[in-house]
Structures are given as C-alpha cells and as structure tokens.
C-alpha cells in the first residue's frame, strides 16, 4: 500500500514538473494542479497509512490520525482557489495580448 | 478583554474587508473604512509593542490546549513587524487616497485589508501550518493588488508571480507534511522541544524539511538564486502597491529568523549551521546581484527592485550568523530597508506621473515640482544605499560590526562584498538620478500636474521615520538587542504556551 501511494505521488510530481516547464500557460496550470494533487496525497499519508480506521479516539482499536485529514482539507481548498485565480489571470493575459506563452514571449 | 488585543490586528482588517465587499457600491465607505482600520491598526501596534516589551503573551484560539489548537504568540519580534506593517500601510494608504489610485480599479480597499490581515497573521502565529495559511491569505490578496487597474504587462507579470508562488506553496506543504510525519506536531514551540529528541534515523528527513522550508522562505524573501520574480512583478505592480510589497520580502526574513532561532536553531545537532551556511552564500550573491542590477537597470522601477534584492542580501548575510548581535543588526537593517524601498516606490509613482515614464535612457519633459522631487529622490537614494547621515548608514555600521565577530577568514569577504556593493549601488542610483532629473528634453511641453500636498506629506513621513530611526539609533538598538537575546534563548516564548512536557 505504501509503495503504491509513493509511486502515485512520484508520478504526479514528475508529471507536474514536466508540465510546469512547458511554454504555454495551460500546461503550466495543469502542472501546478498535478503538483497540488501530489502534495495533498503526501499530506494525507503523513499521518501514516491506516485502513478502515476511524479518525476518532475510542471508536475502534486503533484510530487514525485526524490532523492530516484536516490539514489536507485546508490545502485542497486553498489550492482550488489559487487555481481559479491563476486561470483568470492566464485568460486575462491571453485576451490582453493574444498570446498565451507563460514566459512573456514577446517576439 | 485586553487579552484579545493580540488577535485584533488579524480580526480588524478581516471584518473591515468583509464590510467593504458588502458595501462595495459606496466608494466613500471603503475609503473611510480603510482610514479607520489603519488608525486602529497603528493604535493596536503601539499597544502591542508596549505589551510585548514586558514579555510574550499567547492567544489560544477557541481555548484549545496546545499543541492541538492553534496559538498566536505576541513577542517583541512579532510586535516590531506588526508596527512596521501598520505604519507603512498607513502611509501607503494616505498616498493612495491622495493620488486616487484606489479609483483606477475595483476592490482595492478590501484587497488591501486582506493583505494586512495575512501579513499580521503571519507575524503573530506560532503554528507552522497556520503560517502557511496566512502566507496564502497575503499572497492571494497580493495577486489582486498586483493586477489592480489592469493592463497587459500587469496581467503577464501577475501570471508569472502567481505561478512561481504556487510552486513555493507546494514546496511549503511538502516541507510541513514531512515535519509532521517525523514529529507529529506543527506547533513551532513544540517542534523546538521535540526535534532534538528525534532518533538518528530521522536526521536526513529533518535536514530535508529544513532545506525545503528555507527554499520557501527564500522565494518569499527574494534571495539569490530565487530572486528573478521580484524586479519584474514589482515593476509591473502599481507603485503604491509595490511600496506595500516592500514588507513582503521582510515576511521571508521574519520566517527565517523565527524558524532559524526556534525550530532549526544552531543548537539543534542534526541541522547545526546548515541554514547559516546557505544563507551566508545567498547573502553574498544577493548583494552582488542587487548591486549589478541597480547599475544595469534600464528603468527606475526594476532598479528599485534590484536595490531590494541587494538589501535582502545584507539582511540574510547578517542573520546567517544567528548570534544575538547579528540578529539585532539584521532586524534594524530590515526595518530600515522596508522604509527606504517604500519611499523610493512612492517617489517612482510621482516621477512616472509627471514625466510620463521611468525610462532612464529617454529624456523626459521638465517635471512639475521637479526640484522637490529631485531632492527627495536624493534623500531616499542616500538612505537606500546606506550613506550617512540616514538610518541606512547606521544599519550598515551595525551589520559590519556584527559580522566582524565572525570567523576571521570570512569577515573580510563579507566586508568587501558589502562595501563594494554599496559603492556600485551608489553609482547606479547617481546614474538614475542624473538621467531622470538632469536630462530634460526642452522640446517637450512641461505638463502641468497638481501639487498633491498629502502625497508629498506621505513621503515626508517615511523619510521622517528613517531620520528618527537614525536619531534614536541607540534606544532602538538597545530594544532590538533584548529582542535578539529573547530570540536566541526562546525559553520564554515556549513556556508561555504551557505545552505538555516532553519525555526525553
């Protein structure tokens, strides 16, 4: 289970970094989203992997750590909001200049 | 009741921003609200400064016991930064109201309030994850302020700024999750107690998270080699907003001081001088890049941006020692450089409005109020470069003194780089000043421009603050010396949170 999750995080991070290095803004934003998915899973498992365990003390023999779940909720909300902001900026930049290269291009 | 004064610098702008959005149809309400909120913040900052001088005071959100709940702690360092933010924001707001920048786009005032909320929260919180949340609050407000009043160049620069900072936030989360996975806590005082007791097999992970966090703070503080976002985004931002952003790099410096003295203190065996060694090199490079950038800049706006990079270089070079005198000198210089950068950005706005641009290669028309502007620019440049008699000089002397206590092999290197950097920066500013004020194209009609006495008063207020900082250098340095002592020996900061004891 740990190995599977580690591979997923690694694949998401690698894909995110690759896309971030692209020239157009759309792949860059997709890459940022993939990176945020990777970090969300990373936070989630920082309280260790536990199957079928409730996050409440006293509900089962071995409760899982509830704090990373709270942290990951915060992180998801923030990265969702940030993605919306950067999409609007990318759209605004494209509509103003008619060019969507992320590095400012200017040919 | 007075116990709640600790959290009011966060609550007040947050409530005000909400009200401003609610009454968005009335611009007069937003302007009045901003004025009232900033008056309140300045009063709170003075009160908190006095309070923090007596000792740190905690604020437990929802009365949850630490380390389970979030706790804010007001200590001398936090109070100093709160006062810097409140004072600077007050001056910037006076300038904005006088020049009408807030009318050039929508939602300037609520965004400004959210920016202040994020800054104040970041300076107050004693919880690492909460620090991340307040970083995001101040960043998302800064994205809005950066593109205020729109335009292609602002949108493009804003896009790069946001993308870069989102990457920084992701790295921050990776670092925090790693720390949590090792130690099971994110309260900074709790981390200070628990990290020294971690088993040796966790040493590599602790070092990894320390470096990841340093990368995040280096992005915020625009340390070389992560500085390249700064000149372009600050140049594209509306100049008064850039003046407020002068505090944003100090957030990075603040976080480095807080973590570097509390969590990854030099006494922590696994990290030791890891941060100090990196910051030493980054500081030296920062001074060099900043000075060369000032010399090479083709416009005034990026020139000021590079001057900020250079001054951040001086700050981190000094604090890389993590000794009490070095921290006191770094804090003095950080406060001074925030004031100097803000003064320059406000002047940039005045010059751009009167000259029709800040291009140094092109001759402009004769400026309205040109003589006064030239005089003010010279004073601000003297402050930024660090020539006598202003606070930049006092700050640099303190920095050089603090660094001479360092190992004798390294001190000459630091001295030479700082002094050479000062020389090159001075030449750069002299070049910019003569290009702006002496190369006048008489063929162009000199445009009439209103005198704007309140806007000038705002700039005079910043200069007065720097004069006061150098006149009262001795009491300020004394106060900062105690601050630095408390940072180096943070037991009071830890004890005040009444954490459960950690079994060794």
Q: Work out the oligomeric state of the chains in this entry.
A: heterodimer
Q: How far is it from the N-terminal to the C-terminal residue of chain B, by CA?
A: 38 Å
Mean pLDDT of chain B: 91
Structural class of chain A: mainly alpha
Walk me through the structure:
- The complex is a heterodimer of chains A (107) and B (504).
- Chain A has 107 residues and is mainly alpha-helical.
- Chain A has one domain.
- Chain A is built from 3 helices and no strands.
- Chain A has helices at 2-20, 25-45, 67-97.
- In chain A, α1 packs antiparallel against α2 and α2 packs antiparallel against α3 (67-97).
- With 504 residues, chain B is mainly alpha-helical.
- Chain B has a domain at 275-490.
- Chain B has 20 helices and 2 strands.
- Chain B has helices at 8-22, 27-54, 76-99, 108-124, 128-146, 152-183, 188-194, 203-221, 229-236, 239-245, 248-262, 274-296, 300-319, 324-355, 370-385, 391-404, 411-437, 453-471, 473-488, 491-495; strands spanning 57-60, 71-74.
- A two-stranded antiparallel sheet of chain B has the order 1-2.
- The two termini of chain B are 38 Å apart.
- The mean pLDDT of chain B is 91.
- The chains are: A mainly alpha (107), B mainly alpha (504).
- The interface between A and B is medium-sized, with 35 and 29 residues.
What keyword list fits this structure?
heterodimer, A: 107 residues, mainly alpha, 3 helices, B: 504 residues, 20 helices, 2 strands, 72% helix
């Amino acid at each position: 289970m740990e190995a599977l999750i580690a591979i997923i995080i690694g694949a998401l991070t690698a894909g995110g970094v690759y896309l971030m290095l692209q020239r157009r803004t759309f792949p860059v934003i997709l890459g940022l989203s993939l990176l945020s998915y990777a970090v969300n899973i990373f936070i989630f498992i920082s309280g260790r992997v536990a199957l079928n365990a409730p996050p409440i003390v006293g509900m089962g023999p071995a409760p899982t750590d509830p704090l990373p779940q709270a942290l990951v909720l915060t992180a998801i909300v923030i990265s969702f909001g940030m993605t919306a902001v950067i999409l609007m900026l990318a759209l605004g930049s494209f509509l103003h200049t008619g060019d969507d290269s992320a590095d400012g291009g200017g040919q | 009741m007075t116990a709640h004064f600790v959290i009011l610098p966060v609550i007040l702008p947050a409530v005000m921003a909400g009200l401003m959005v609610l009454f968005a149809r009335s611009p007069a309400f937003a302007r009045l609200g901003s004025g009232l909120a900033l008056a309140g913040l300045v009063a709170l900052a003075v009160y908190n400064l006095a309070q923090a001088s007596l000792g740190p005071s905690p604020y437990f959100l929802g009365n949850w016991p630490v380390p389970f709940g979030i706790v804010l702690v007001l200590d001398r360092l936090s109070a100093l930064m709160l006062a810097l933010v409140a004072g600077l924001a007050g001056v910037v707001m006076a300038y904005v109201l006088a020049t009408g920048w807030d009318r050039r786009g929508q939602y300037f005032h609520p965004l400004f309030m959210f920016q202040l909320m994020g800054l104040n929260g970041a300076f107050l919180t004693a919880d690492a994850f909460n620090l991340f949340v307040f970083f995001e609050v101040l960043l998302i407000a800064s994205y809005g302020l950066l593109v205020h009043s729109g335009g292609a160049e602002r949108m493009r620069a804003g896009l790069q700024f946001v993308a870069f900072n989102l990457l920084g936030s992701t790295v921050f989360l990776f670092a925090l999750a790693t720390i949590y996975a090792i130690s099971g806590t994110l309260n900074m005082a709790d981390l200070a107690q628990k990290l020294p007791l971690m088993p040796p097999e966790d040493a590599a992970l602790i070092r990894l998270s320390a470096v990841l966090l340093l990368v995040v703070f280096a992005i915020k503080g625009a340390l070389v080699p992560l500085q390249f976002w700064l000149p372009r985004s600050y140049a594209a931002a509306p100049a008064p907003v850039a003046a407020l952003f002068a505090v944003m790099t100090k957030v990075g410096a603040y976080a480095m001081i807080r973590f570097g003295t509390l969590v990854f203190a030099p006494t922590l065996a696994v990290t030791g001088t890891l941060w100090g060694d990196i910051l030493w090199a980054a500081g030296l490079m920062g001074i060099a890049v900043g000075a060369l950038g000032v010399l090479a800049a083709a416009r005034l706006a990026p020139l000021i941006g590079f001057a900020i990079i250079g001054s951040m270089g001086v700050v981190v070079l000094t604090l890389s020692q993590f000794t009490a005198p070095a921290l006191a000198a770094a804090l003095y210089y950080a406060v001074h450089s925030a004031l100097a950068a803000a003064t320059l950005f406000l002047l940039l706005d005045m010059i751009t409005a009167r000259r029709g641009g800040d291009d140094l290669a092109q001759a402009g028309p004769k400026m309205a109020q040109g003589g006064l502007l030239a005089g003010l620019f010279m004073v601000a440049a003297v402050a930024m470069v660090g020539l006598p008699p202003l606070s930049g000089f006092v700050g640099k002397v303190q920095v050089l003194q603090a660094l001479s206590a360092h190992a004798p092999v390294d001190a000459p290197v630091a001295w030479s780089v700082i002094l050479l950097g000062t020389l090159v920066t001075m030449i750069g500013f002299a070049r910019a000043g003569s290009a702006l004020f002496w190369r006048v194209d008489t063929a162009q009609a000199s445009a009439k421009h209103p005198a704007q006495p309140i806007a000038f008063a705002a700039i005079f207020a910043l200069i007065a603050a720097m004069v006061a900082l150098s006149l009262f250098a001795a009491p300020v340095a004394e106060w900062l010396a105690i601050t630095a002592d408390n940072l180096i020996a943070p037991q009071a900061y830890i004890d005040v949170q009444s954490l459960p004891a950690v079994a060794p």
